[in-house]
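Late entry, evening session. Most of the bench is empty. Finally got around to the prediction I had been postponing all week. Sequence below, unchanged from the version circulated by S.P.
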Amino acid sequence: MKILFLLIIALLAFNNNYAFASESDFVMIPGGTFQMGSPTSENWRGNDETQHEITIGDFYLSKYELTQGEYKALTGENPSSFKGDNLPVENISWLDAINYCNLLSKREGLAKAYEIKDNQVIWHKEADGYRLPTEAEWEYACRAGTSTPFNNEKSISASEANYYGHYPYEIEENYFTQAKLTTKPGIYRAETVKIGSFAPNKFGLYDMHGNVAEWCWDVYGEYDLNNNLNPTGPASGTRRVYRGGAWNDFAKNMRSAYRAAMPQDGTSFNLGMRLARGPIGVGLAATSAAINANAQSDSSAKILIAYFSWSGNTRDIAQKIYGKLGKSQADIIELEPVKAYSDDYSTVLKQAQHDQHIQARPELKTKIKNIAQYNTIILGYPNWWASIPMPIASFLESYDLSGKTIMPFCSHGGGRFGQSLTAIAKLAQHSAITQGLSIHYGGGSSLMRYIENWLKANNLI
């Protein structure tokens, strides 16, 4: 009884030390121990989801994703693709998120959690200001006591989260015979929705799956299996973690354990943030600066346009890019696998998802003799099952692309890049990645305008 009394007193003290501008927007997440990552039996798990036991202390987390209204009120800016004060802010980088946390802390007279010094972002762990959740905190909060792929303990539906509802969990291997699917295909809204539009998880948190993905503090890398108490990620690296999936993601990429990554100054129309607060400990957590995601290409260096195409849409885009740059500035090459994919649409759908499922690396008959002569790689592909076709993975792993700039472009049927940018970011961790160009099917009459604007933005014309 005495122990219970002391715990209550401690909890009250913890709460009283953390006043918020809006008390109703934050919940205290009670600490505990959980299995982070996914079991080997979980379908569509990634190799970077090694399951291990983690203990998390108490902390606060916002019930909602940060809105555009909140972001604009403090920064005076709204970079979002979809406009609306009650919609989640997106198109913000990790550095933007760090800056917002500091601005909000300053406004409320709190100690700033972050300091930028000597090309490092330093986290003062004991600070009482606002911050991003760690990757471990995010997954713990998302799961809310569950150990299943999603926090509703079953396959998540489009009536429970905002995602590419045409593609529920395990649709890939059940596309033509859907009787075995736990959740059938639903609506695809193709945009963000008002925060809190769906039921919360057991911790009272909304949109932990879908709507927009959310930045975490951590540098992306292999889990440290020896650090199981409030881990904060690797000390250095080139990518930052984001979690949760978004409005254009397939369900497989919204799983509680799914890990996405991007350079810290990278932005996307499906990536936002959620605020955390509360001490994780004492001392400093410092991480070295990531590769500049928006590095401008050197217009005097040779450019390689490398692409994989199946239907011809990507090939046509690549050739138009080549025509715009000219052979004096660029070389173009098609990435052809030794064993070609089927010409039949239904068959290639099966082949593509199978290769992704097993993370195949198809052998390429395309060989590049001197990759060192290229500073910039314009990399094209169709969006297959919300990611890159596996011949693209083969290419990225076949050459040393360290220090090079990758300019991705893709053709798609509605999901834009899906999680293909994360796939590239993980496979080419020592390359800069520019803003990509996504083209709906063949682009129609606007294709050349899209290409020209993209090349101009990257200082190539």
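Two things to note before I forget:
The two ends are 74 Å apart (CA to CA).
The chain has two domains: 17-288, 302-457.
Will write this up properly tomorrow.
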